[in-house]
C-alpha cells in the first residue's frame, strides 16, 4: 500500500521586507500562525513542510523554529532572485543546508510557467536547477511550480528536464513517492485549527469551498 502524506507550503512569515507582488500578501502569515502549524506537524512523519519564494524569513524566522522542534523542510528557492532585498541570500542558503534542510527550485524569476517563451523556459527550469546545483554542491532535481500554475506542456518540460519530483498547490493528501505532489498552502487568514484540519484530512467548510473554487478556476483556465 502506498503511504499517504500531507505536504504544506509556507511562503513569507512576519513583517514583509520587500514590496510584494499583486495578491502575494494573501500567502503571508504571522509568526504565531506559522508556529501553530509547526507545532501541529511535530511527531508527524506523514507531514512534509515546504517553503516557496526564497524569502529572507526562511532563515530569519523559519529556520530557528524548525530546528527548535526537530523538524526538517524543503526550501524551493528562486535562483534568479537570490540575494535581492527581502530574499534569501547565499549565506542563508548555506545556513539552511548546514541545518539539514533540503534545497529545491522554484524557478528563476517567479514567472507563470504556463506562459513562458522557450528561452524563459530554459532559464526557469534548466538554468535554475543548474545554478542551484552549483551553489549547493548537490544535484537539484525537485521543483515547486510557481503559483501552482501548470498544464500538460509544463509537466512535459519538467519530465524532459529530468525533474524527479514536482510540487504543485492542488491541495489534499499526496502519495509519498509519486512524481506529482499536491500541497496545501498556508495563507494569511488561517485560524488556529487550520493545520489540524488539513493534517487530519477533514477540511472545514470554508477550506472545502476554497478548494472547489480553485478547481473551478483551473478548469476555466484549461
Ligand atoms: Zn511562489
* Alpha-beta content class: alpha/beta
Low-confidence stretches: none
Tell me the CATH architecture: Alpha-Beta Barrel
Average the pLDDT over all residues and give the rounded result. 93
| Gyration radius from CA atoms, angstroms | 16 Å
CATH topology: TIM Barrel
* Number of DSSP strand runs: 9
- Strand fraction: 15-25%
Order of helices and strands: EHEHEHEHEHEEEEHH
Which descriptor suits the 3D outline?
globular
Let me know the largest β-sheet.
6 strands, mixed
Number of domains: 1
User: Share of helix among residues?
Assistant: 25-40%
CATH class division? Alpha Beta
What is the topological layout?
Layout: E1 4-10, H1 31-41, E2 47-51, H2 57-68, E3 73-77, H3 90-98, E4 102-105, H4 118-136, E5 142-144, H5 152-160, E6 165-167, E7 173-175, E8 180-181, E9 184-185, H6 194-200, H7 205-221
Parallel strand pairs: 1-2, 1-9, 2-3, 3-4, 5-6, 6-8
Antiparallel strand pairs: 1-7
Helix pairs in contact: 1-2, 1-6
The structure holds zinc ion.
Amino acid at each position: 500500500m502506498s503511504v499517504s502524506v500531507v505536504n504544506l507550503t509556507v511562503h513569507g512569515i512576519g513583517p514583509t521586507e520587500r514590496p510584494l507582488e499583486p495578491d502575494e500578501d494573501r500567502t503571508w502569515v504571522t509568526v504565531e500562525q506559522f508556529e501553530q502549524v509547526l507545532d501541529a506537524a511535530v511527531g508527524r512523519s506523514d507531514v512534509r513542510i515546504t517553503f516557496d519564494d526564497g524569502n529572507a524569513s526562511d532563515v530569519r524566522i523559519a529556520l530557528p523554529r524548525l530546528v527548535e522542534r526537530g523538524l526538517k523542510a524543503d526550501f524551493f528557492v528562486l535562483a534568479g532572485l537570490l540575494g535581492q532585498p527581502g530574499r534569501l541570500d547565499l549565506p542563508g542558503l548555506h545556513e539552511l543546508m548546514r541545518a539539514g534542510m533540503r534545497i529545491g527550485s522554484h524557478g528563476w524569476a517567479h514567472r507563470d510557467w504556463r506562459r513562458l517563451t522557450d528561452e524563459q523556459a530554459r532559464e526557469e527550469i534548466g538554468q535554475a536547477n543548474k545554478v542551484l546545483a552549483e551553489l549547493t554542491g548537490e544535484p537539484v532535481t525537485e521543483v515547486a511550480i510557481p503559483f501552482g500554475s501548470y498544464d500538460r506542456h509544463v509537466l512535459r518540460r519538467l519530465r524532459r528536464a529530468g525533474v524527479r519530483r514536482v510540487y504543485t498547490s492542488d491541495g489534499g493528501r499526496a502519495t509519498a513517492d509519486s512524481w506529482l505532489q499536491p500541497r496545501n498552502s498556508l495563507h494569511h487568514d488561517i485560524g488556529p485549527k487550520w493545520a489540524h484540519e488539513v493534517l487530519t484530512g477533514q477540511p472545514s467548510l470554508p477550506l472545502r469551498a476554497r478548494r472547489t473554487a480553485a478547481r473551478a478556476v483551473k478548469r476555466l483556465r484549461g
